[in-house]
Amino acid sequence: MRRRLLVQNAFRFDRSQWRPVEALRCTLGLALPLLIAVLLGHPSWGVLAATGALNTGLASYSGVTRARLRLMLTTTTVTAAVTVLGVLVGQNSWLGALAVLVAGVLLAIYGASGPAATTISLQAVTVLIVLTGLHLPLSQALPSGALVLLGGLLQTLLLAAVWPLAPRWPERRVVASVYRSLARFTEQLPTSPDHLLPDALPLQTAWALLDEANTYRWRTEHAELRQRLHRAEALRGAITGLAVADAEFRQVGEPERVQAQTYADALARTLRQSMDDIRHGHNAPADLEALRAALDVLPGSTTSLPSQRYRHWAELVYATLNAPARARPEQPIPAQNPAAPTEQPQTRQGWWSRVLRLPLGPLVLRHALRYGLALGLSTLLYRLLNIQHGYWLPLTVAVLLRQDYAATLTRGLARLTGTLGGVLLATLLVLLVHPSAAVLSGLSLGAAFLVYALFLTNYAVFSAAITVYVVCSVAASGLAEEQVGLLRIVATLLGGLTALGVSLLWPSWQSGSVWKTLQDAVQAQASYAGAVDALVQATPETFPRTLLEADRAGRHARALRLQAEGTLQAAALEPGRRRAEQRRVLFALLSRLHANAAQVLTLHAEAEALHTTHRRTRTQAAQHSAALREQIMQDVRALQADTDSLVGRATATDETATL
Predict the structure, then answer these.
(1) Is residue 483's pLDDT more than 80?
(2) Cα 156–14–260 angle (5° rounding)?
């Protein structure tokens, strides 16, 4: 299971993230400085300016549309600053290693504050490592920084003014990707108990992006997208329960297998239709006729227990898709004063306050320290040994070493595979073809297009493309020498082994926190269920405050559910064989947690609708929801009791093993 999960995570290729149009725009912004420099007879100038353009173009893939300008400008400024620093300290081995160490620590702390900060930090570290390894004269420090700055500003101008992205297109795309991931999971419903969870990354990415959109002027379409995302979150929980029941239902007989497949096919088509509607900005209700027909032919309540369970979850999936939208356009939730009006968006924080509010927890600080030490020591090692182009050693460590072992392992496998392939390809081109500087610039442009187009599809192929770009660009500048291909490969392998060794010798294991994380998630889910129960019974006077409390509880429960899922997935890849039975129990508990979340989210939406209907209709609907409410509370109490019991047994087992 561990090997299959490792390969799946490392080499999963998402064709829907192929971005040829965006790649062409970014490549044109990168080609202009290269072309001008070649015409002036100074190709190295173009390489430096293209470095700023490359990083700025990659930064344009993150954040909502209105935030991307700030992100691109930040990336440009940081890249130019580390370029100057890299040239200044590049002549001295000890200063270069110290600069990489300090920058690694600081940028690792900053990178932990969010996905955009992670992108900026990684780009800055890699540029610093490469520049310290090129041994440029000190007199070129400021000119090099200026060239990088100009290249980044030119790319920013082109992307922001000449061909800007359509408004809210990034938001639509991330929400549509959640429905696409659910459709893909439904099309290939797993039968192994170890693989009963849809991918959580699209949901996490979508919520992060829409939460970022809250800091800007609130728009109606953002509210609609959040409603779609709420529904997708409920669907994810319901489909998780459906997947568990599906594995048993298909074993009953051939008719049941056909019925399950028919329902799964209809559900996948419905989810893909929703995905297309979201991508094109349509808010029409989904066509549920085929799904209703597939549901009608399922066995009734008097059949076998697997059939009853499957029908229960199939009906919940259908009800979630058929449920009305939230009764009110969801507004951003104020951080303070819950009684304050909800019509205004959150107060926008200053840029410096967001930058300076860094995560300084023990895990972040420990990783930042080991990250900086690993980079500094590997830089010092290759400099003292005078290894030609040995910067590939710390460069590989920089892109592979992550906070947890599982991420380092999966990212390392993908990066090593892609980097080695890219090094081999680029080295063969340089050694066998002997291209001129102009041809090398053209090859680097082709590689840059692939870098942008493949950025979000698969990390291995992206790594291969960016490796070819780095090799061809440095060779075009006249700074590279031939017959260093083997040294690059050896340095890359050593960098991968170093990153893995650091993770093993200075570990940050997730296995020890699995039970506690799951217990916290269940407790948060119980609080959320209680808040929704209070919302159903709220009076018109208490409804606004109760609604805010339910929304906050829902956000907290969602965050802990996804954290528990990520921790469990990471622990499954760590060394030391955890008993298969224990792993199945963990996944089963997590599946129950997601299934309960689906019901609570559905009741949450119904509770809001109750307060906008006629009094008689509201009374009837409340009576109908009473049984569901009681079932949810019983389920979450049982789940909480089972989790507490298992946590106690696991803790006692660990203590006994320690003694």
Answers:
(1) no
(2) 145
Scan for tokens 């008993």, then name that residue.
579
Answer whether 375's CB lies under 8 Å from 243's CB: no
User: Residue 614: is it exposed, middle or buried by C-beta count within 10 angstroms (0-12/13-18/19+)?
Assistant: exposed
**Contact (Cβ atoms closer than 8 angstroms) between residue 352 and residue 91:** no
- Tokens 């610093």, residue? 128
Q: Is the pLDDT of residue 481 over 70?
A: no
Distances 492 to 186, 409, 483 between C-alpha atoms, Å: 39, 15, 16
Q: What residues contact 219, with CB distance under 8 A and at least 6 apart?
A: 168, 213
In this predicted model, which residue has the larger pLDDT, 559 or 95? 95
CA distance 457 to 148: 27
The total number of residues shown for the chain amounts to 659
Cα-based distances in Å from 418 to 412, 453, 476, 544, 655: 10, 15, 22, 53, 42
Please, are residues 78 and 124 in contact by the beta-carbon 8 Å criterion? yes
Token code pair at residue 128: 């610093």
Nearest to 105 by CA among 460, 418, 421, 364: 364
98-107, 118-127, 468-477, 603-612: segment of lowest average pLDDT: 603-612
Q: How far from 488 is each of 68, 420, 425, 427, 492, CA to CA, in Å?
A: 34, 9, 12, 9, 6
| Residue 329: pLDDT over 80 | no
Q: Which residue matches tokens 């795309």?
A: 173
Alpha carbons 598 and 312: distance in angstroms, whole number: 13
pLDDT value at 453 more than 80: yes
pTM reported for the whole predicted model:
0.69
Question: Which of 204-208, 358-362, 366-370 shows the lowest per-residue confidence on average (mean pLDDT)?
Answer: 358-362
Kindly state the tokens that stand for 137: 């004269």
Judge contact between 10 and 573, C-beta under 8 A.
Answer: no
| Closest by CA position to 36, among listed 24, 48, 54 | 48
- Kindly write down the DSSP assignment for every residue of 582-612, as one continuous string: HHHHHHHHHHHHHHHHHHHHHHHHHHHHHTT
Give the residue carrying structure tokens 């039968």. 191
Contact between 319 and 602 (Cβ < 8 Å):
yes
